[in-house]
Write a structure and sequence with these properties.
heterodimer; A: 283 residues; mainly beta; 2 domains; 25-stranded mixed β-sheet; 26 strands; B: 228 residues; mainly alpha; 10 helices
Chain lengths: 283, 228
């Protein structure tokens, strides 16, 4: 019996409780939510209201506070930090937001406005952002789909994938691959230390593109009709181009650096890998 | 001399080492070339910073400034500052100078790469000896950069070590593994550079990898201190 009581108390503390509340939010308001552990899922609707549904421990309290143009969603408990909260938010279309967490998975289905999302141990997935996107995770994968603004992604150990996006794209990570698929940007910069960088997209006249890896391959898959001045740099790696690009190499031995011009050469493309393969592939 | 080749002479220009005719020709080129003007302006800034580098006395406690640089809110910074007294052996201007110098060394490699860009469909290799003077001058400052960089890394590592217990062990493991990945890349780049100190790509690559390590350490330190 002496054992049963604490167990029951623990069970009660862990018993999920639900919060479901809807508040009116000012037009142009920004959402702020800083979670500890759990999930944050965001969807949109046409109303100028924020609906917060949350599943949490019975000792936790979820609050929504509207202060000026900031809507803050928070979870608290009298002693300590709420251990695990699952948020399901429905926000006005185009709402800007700042979402963060430690062990938190973040999923956003737009269209949303400017968004900053950061997690330490969780993944981040953002679809349909229309403004600036900033996503940052240490261990989780980061997936950005769609988006028409500036996209800035920073990872460490999780895979990074950006697809169907327009705008300026910057991606940086350390121990993982980067895949940029159907990206239509005039400025794209993607770099990793130990991973592969893949870019499949367009090269705009006058645009600037840079893809780098230390210990991985760099693959650029673009139409052979691009106008670009391409610089390739490597130390112990290799370079290979699809014959369709008609690149003429005079270099006798692999490695080092060289440049060549495709079309009128108006875009700048830099491809670098210390000891990986660099490939130019026809799209 | 073709216009692009002037990029390599900007450092001499800045140091007043061009003869009259060359200086006049470069002046004329600068009037027309925005890229070279930007590069020259950056070189001037780097030089100013480098000059300031050796004149500054270390401050007693630079934690608030460091915290600001790594993006910590003031309240968190103050809380962390109270946790453990620290001794800092570098100044914020030194950190800024290091960042600028790293960027400059990196940019030096980039400038050298740009020199090869001529409108021809035939790929050209870069000459592997006789590096551009400007780059050589920047490379010669690497010892100074390394010194500031090493101290910045050591201090950030100290912040991380003092606060690592606040991070989840799995996160610590990931961060440490990623730092080891960068260190391996740094070691390989340094080894390669020792064989070919004038290689502009290697100079730029080393600078960028050093910058990545600083960035990761800043992020790690910010995470650790913010987790209190």
């Amino acid at each position: 019996m002496a054992i049963t009581v604490p167990v029951l108390l623990l069970a009660a503390a862990a018993w999920p409780q639900q919060t479901d509340t809807t508040v009116a939010v000012p037009r142009g308001a920004r959402l702020e939510l800083d979670a500890h552990a759990g999930t944050i899922r965001v969807a949109t609707w046409e109303r100028n209201e924020l609906r917060v549904r949350a599943e949490h421990g019975s000792r936790d309290q979820v609050t929504v506070e509207v202060r000026g143009s900031v809507v803050k969603v928070d979870a608290s408990r009298r002693y300590g930090i709420p251990s695990f909260v699952e948020y399901d938010l429905t926000v006005p279309r185009g709402m800007a937001m700042e979402l963060g967490g430690v062990e938190t998975e973040i999923t956003v289905e737009g269209p949303v406005g400017d968004i900053t999302a950061s997690s330490v141990e969780g993944g981040i997935s953002i679809r349909g952002a229309t403004g600036t996107v900033s996503a940052n995770s240490v261990e989780g994968d980061i997936v950005i789909q769609g988006g028409t603004g500036t996209i800035h992604v920073t990872g460490v150990d999780g895979e990074i994938r950006v697809s169907d996006a327009k705008g300026e794209v910057t991606v940086e990570t350390v121990d993982s691959d980067i895949t940029l698929e159907n990206v239509d940007g005039t400025s794209v910069d993607a770099g990793t230390v130990d991973g592969t960088v893949i870019y499949r997209g367009t090269i705009h006249d006058g645009g600037r593109y840079r893809f780098t890896s230390h210990d991985g391959d760099v693959l650029l898959e673009v139409p052979e009709t691009i106008n670009a001045t391409v610089t390739v740099a490597t130390f112990e790696g290799s370079f290979e181009a699809d014959p369709a690009f008609k690149v003429q190499l005079t270099q006798a031995r692999p490695g080092k650096r060289f440049s060549f011009v495709l079309g009128n050469g108006s875009a700048r493309v830099e491809l670098e890998s210390f000891d990986g393969g660099i490939r130019l592939i026809r799209r | 001399m073709t216009p692009d080749q002037w990029t390599a002479r900007l450092s001499e220009y800045l140091d007043g080492e061009l003869d009259g005719a060359e200086r006049q020709a470069l002046d004329a080129h600068l009037d027309k070339c925005a890229d070279c003007r930007d590069t020259l302006a950056e070189l001037k800034r780097v030089t100013l910073r480098a000059t300031a580098l050796s004149d500054r006395e270390p401050a007693a406690d630079l934690w608030p400034g460091i915290a600001a640089r790594i993006g910590l809110p003031a309240a968190t910074a103050a809380r962390v500052s109270r946790l453990a007294p620290r001794r800092w052996s570098f100044t914020l201007p030194q950190l800024a100078a290091a960042a600028l110098l790293l960027a400059a060394v990196g940019a030096g490699g980039f400038w050298a790469l740009q020199q090869s860009l001529t409108p021809t469909p035939v790929a050209r290799t870069q000459p592997e000896t006789a590096p551009p003077e400007g780059l050589a001058r920047l490379a010669s400052r690497r010892d100074e950069v390394d010194d500031v960089y090493d101290r910045a890394v050591a201090d950030l590592e100290r912040v991380l070590a003092e606060n690592r217990s606040r991070l989840d062990t799995a996160t610590v493991r990931v961060l440490e593994e990623s730092l080891r990945t960068i260190d391996r890349a740094l070691a390989r780049a340094r080894t390669a550079l020792a064989q070919d100190p004038s290689d502009s790509y290697l100079n730029a690559h080393l600078a960028e990898t050093m910058r990545r390590k600083l960035d990761l350490l800043r992020r790690a330190a910010a995470l650790a201190t913010a987790s209190s």
